[in-house]
Q: What sequence folds into this?
């Protein structure tokens, strides 16, 4: 619930509105996990709340820690569906990658999450709670986050097929009495749901946008990302142009391109990609993502020299390109690896603090 919804909720049960604000602060700013801990609320009110409401709906089933410090949380919803969240420690500012759906309906051929199919779209509370769980584990319950946190909606699911709950979650997270993570700290990635790209172009207080391309031609993109049959490149890039024209200073807009050995990584593909972006007069930079492999996926990551050659061709044609370093590969926490995998190095000791 938003702060206002909580105010109305407590008022309906005969309590003053400020109690709702207190609960909001306890849940989001102090990140408390039970009504019992909210000792600034009258005891009998806490007891009544505990009978009718809950502070948490996600259950942390396991936590995995990668060699590079990346952490993956595998949680279950009240209806027993998997939700995964990844905490990525970084030098300047840590990043939390959250999921918008349990599973995913898109059938991108190179992505392991696709193998789950869509289980269910998450609600706003389930998105916000992922952040609370990750922050509490990384920094301790209720402590301030040392350098602020960046969020990316790049976990399982297609965020633009979860548009309403996503936007609600972002509003709740932005509240200064709560987590206070403003849209400027959030990046949402889409496989190319064109109407929502256009809708986002008209929204003032919005997150940064990233578009997953993966191929420079319709023929190849149809194969790798079937969503391309619904919204082909011409329509997608026209929407991107409209979005780019709406950019305000400080806003980021990027393309992501997963590099698949021998499939979409040749010199010719690089030239086609650069020409495509230039033809549409798009100036956004391209993040090149080495493929994260899995036994079930018929792809291999491009060799490092190929990645560098691909990047150099883009740059020679005036397209800014950056190579992303994969994080948390060894625990199935990297891009396209979220498929509710259980691996052997679960670290369970602190789970009582989380759930
Ligand atoms: N559905 C949204 C959000 C997921 S973001 C989207 O597609 O944008 C996940 C990012 O990881 C996307 O850019 C996707 O193309 C990329 N990806 C998927 N599977 C991958 C894999 N196995 N290795 C590397 N990147 C992958």
A:
């Amino acid at each position: 619930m938003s702060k206002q919804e909580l105010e109305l909720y407590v008022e309906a049960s005969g309590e003053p509105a400020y109690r709702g604000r207190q609960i909001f602060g306890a849940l989001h700013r102090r990140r408390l996990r039970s009504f019992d801990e909210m000792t600034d609320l009258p005891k009998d009110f806490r007891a009544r709340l505990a009978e009718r409401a809950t502070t948490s709906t996600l259950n942390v089933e396991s936590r995995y820690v990668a060699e590079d410090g990346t952490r993956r949380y595998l949680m279950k919803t009240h209806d027993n569906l998997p939700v995964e969240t990844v905490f990525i420690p970084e030098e300047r500012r840590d990043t939390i990658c959250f999921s918008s759906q349990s599973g995913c309906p898109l059938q991108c051929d190179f992505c392991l999450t696709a193998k789950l199919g869509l289980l269910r779209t998450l609600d706003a509370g389930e998105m916000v709670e992922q952040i609370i769980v990750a922050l509490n584990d990384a920094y301790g319950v209720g402590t301030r986050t040392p350098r602020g946190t960046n969020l990316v909606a790049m976990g399982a699911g297609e965020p633009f097929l979860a548009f309403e709950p996503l936007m609600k979650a972002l509003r709740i997270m932005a509240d200064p009495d709560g987590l206070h993570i403003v849209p400027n700290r959030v990046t949402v990635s889409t496989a190319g749901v064109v109407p929502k790209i256009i809708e986002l172009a008209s929204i003032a207080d919005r997150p940064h946008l990233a578009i997953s391309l993966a191929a420079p031609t319709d023929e190849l993109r149809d194969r790798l990302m079937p969503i391309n049959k619904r919204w082909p490149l011409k329509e997608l890039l026209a929407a991107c142009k409209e979005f780019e024209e709406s950019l305000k200073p400080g806003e980021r807009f990027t393309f992501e391109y997963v590099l698949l050995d021998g499939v979409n990584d040749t010199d010719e593909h690089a030239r086609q990609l650069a020409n495509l972006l230039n033809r549409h007069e798009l100036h956004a930079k391209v993040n090149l993502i080495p493929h994260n492999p899995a036994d079930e996926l018929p792809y291999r990551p491009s060799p490092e020299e190929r990645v560098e050659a691909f990047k150099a061709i883009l740059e020679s044609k005036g397209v800014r390109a950056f190579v992303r370093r994969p994080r948390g590969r060894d625990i199935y926490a990297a891009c396209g690896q979220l498929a509710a995998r259980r691996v052997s190095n679960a670290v369970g000791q602190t789970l009582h603090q989380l759930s």
